[in-house]
From TrEMBL:
Similarity section: In the C-terminal section; belongs to the AIR carboxylase family. Class II subfamily.
Pathway the protein takes part in: Purine metabolism; IMP biosynthesis via de novo pathway; 5-amino-1-(5-phospho-D-ribosyl)imidazole-4-carboxamide from 5-amino-1-(5-phospho-D-ribosyl)imidazole-4-carboxylate: step 1/2; Purine metabolism; IMP biosynthesis via de novo pathway; 5-amino-1-(5-phospho-D-ribosyl)imidazole-4-carboxylate from 5-amino-1-(5-phospho-D-ribosyl)imidazole (carboxylase route): step 1/1
Pfam families assigned to the protein according to its UniProt record, in alphabetical order: AIRC, SAICAR_synt
Domain PurE: 284-431
Xref: HAMAP family: PurE_classII, SAICAR_synth
Keyword Nucleotide-binding applies: yes
Cited InterPro entries: PurE_classII, PurE_dom, SAICAR_synt/ADE2_N, SAICAR_synthetase, SAICAR_synthetase_CS
GO-annotated cellular components: cytosol
Gene behind this protein: paics
Keywords (A to Z) from UniProt: ATP-binding, Decarboxylase, Ligase, Lyase, Multifunctional enzyme, Nucleotide-binding, Purine biosynthesis
Protein name, entry field: PurE domain-containing protein
Record-linked Gene3D superfamilies: 3.40.50.1970, ATP-grasp fold, B domain, Phosphorylase Kinase, domain 1
Domain of life: Eukaryota
Subunit structure: Homooctamer.
Length: 443
């Protein structure tokens, strides 16, 4: 009787969610329905779809399935937060915007029928398929696996060779070596970003599964589907006994109302914590000190590059030769508020700023002199050859100086690190695609 009431409440919740979505968006045909979500085309937004979550929770390819009131909202909140984190970092995803408590808008994709699994710690099915490996074994580098989505055959594990031999063609794109490599590299980068993010909550990301699709409009491979509490294993403090993911539901010997409430509390815990991943725990800054306003254009390039990593950048004018007392006063101003700070010294001719700053602060100092064609070869030595006891580095490119500062701040700021990691991936992907295009032209 109680389960009947739960089912009635869940159906009512789904009807309310659908009504909320229908009332605000003009929905077209239902394109797909899975165990935990429905996908509708959007009449007024060509190329976009609505992904509507359901209150159903399943395990073992739906051998076990139950209704969990509120799960749709929890899953949607989790997915939306994760995709926002990844999109802000610079990863290409299908996510467009959260639409309601239980639905989000996404770019329409033709899905590649592969689950990409990335593992940091050996557990679960990996141990069954690899007897002799002890639970807890740590993979460095990460262990990658792929599984063909085929419920009838329990999603068999595939090799790269099988995926290449399948020759999938989706939205006009043939899935070949270039595309497989892009998905493989992207899976690792995405895992590493989420692993570092969860680390700020003292939570270990044990493993994760994701899916990719081909955007029907841009013909690009993008991270698609959802990433919610069914997509990973999470162990607070690295302790399996405290696991908060769907494995708790899978492990239930008997499904009771009390057990389902425990599962729901775990899902809610994850949904609340995942929102915190969008916030920096140690926001730093870059302070650019220029010897004169003639260096403003050079310094603006540093500030613009810092902005691409989400790092605040302050520009100041001071001369260590002509006003060392003011230079040290400005230094003290930024040392006194406890905000992690990188100083960048921009001075041509004889660089006094970098050495003076380096000799008077424990904060990192980067020389970034604006080298000129006339005396640049001589001037650069004032940034390269330092007295003993000084540790300032020298980077000639303003963009590279900003990147170096971001790498330092990213050690303690997962959002800055995420943008660096996404930038690395995007550079790699652009080179891979350029090579593919050149080879096609040659043929």
């Amino acid at each position: 009787m109680l389960f009947g009431k739960i089912n009635e409440l869940s159906l009512a919740s789904l009807r309310h969610s659908l009504y909320q979505s229908f009332s605000e968006l003009k929905l077209g045909q239902k394109l797909n329905e899975g165990k935990t979500k429905q996908i509708f085309e959007l009449v007024d937004e060509p190329g976009h779809v609505l992904v509507q979550s359901k209150d159903q929770i399943t395990a073992g390819n739906a051998v076990r399935k139950d209704q969990m009131e509120g799960k749709a909202a929890i899953a949607n909140k989790t997915t939306s937060s994760v995709f926002k984190l990844l999109q802000d970092a610079g990863f290409k995803t299908a996510f467009v915007r959260q639409h309601s408590d239980t639905a989000f808008v996404a770019s329409r994709c033709e899905m590649i029928p592969i689950e990409w699994v990335c593992r940091r710690i050996a557990t679960g099915s990996f141990l069954k398929r690899n007897p002799g490996v002890k639970e807890g074994y740590r993979f460095s580098p990460l262990k990658m696996e792929m599984f063909f989505k085929d419920d009838a055959n329990n999603d068999p594990q595939w090799s790269e060779e099988q995926l290449l031999a399948a020759g999938f063609e989706l939205a006009g794109l043939t899935i070949g070596r270039c595309e497989v490599d892009i998905m493989s590299k992207s899976t690792v980068a995405i895992f590493e970003v989420l692993e570092k993010a969860w680390g700020t909550q003292d939570c270990t990301l044990v493993d994760m599964k994701i899916e990719f699709g081909v955007n029907v409009t841009t013909k690009e491979i993008v991270l698609a589907d959802v990433i919610d509490n069914d997509s990973w294993r999470l162990w607070p403090a690295g302790d399996r006994s405290q696991q908060k993911d769907k494995q708790v539901y899978r492990d239930l010997k008997e499904v009771t109302p009390e057990a389902m409430q425990m599962v729901k509390r775990n899902f809610e815990w994850v949904a609340e914590r995942v929102k915190l991943l969008l916030e920096s725990q140690a926001k730093g800054r870059v302070v650019v000190l220029m010897g004169s306003t003639s260096d403003v254009a050079h310094c603006e390039k540093i500030r613009k590059a810092c902005g691409s990593y989400g790092i605040p950048c302050h520009l100041r004018v001071t001369s260590a030769h002509k006003g060392p007392d003011e230079t040290l006063r400005i230094k003290a101003e930024y040392e006194g508020d406890g905000v992690p700070t990188i100083f960048v010294a921009v001075a041509g001719r004889s660089n006094g700023l970098g050495p003076v700053m380096s000799g008077n602060t424990a904060y990192p100092v980067i020389n970034c002199p604006p080298v000129t064609p006339d005396w640049g070869a001589q001037d650069i030595w004032s940034s390269l050859r330092m007295p003993s006891g000084l540790g300032c580095s020298t980077v000639l490119s303003p963009e590279a100086a900003a990147q170096f500062a971001a790498q330092i701040l990213g050690l303690n700021d997962h959002l800055v690190w995420a943008r660096l990691r996404a930038s690395m991936l995007n550079t790699w992907v652009s080179l891979k695609q350029a090579d593919k295009k050149l080879q096609e032209c040659s043929l």
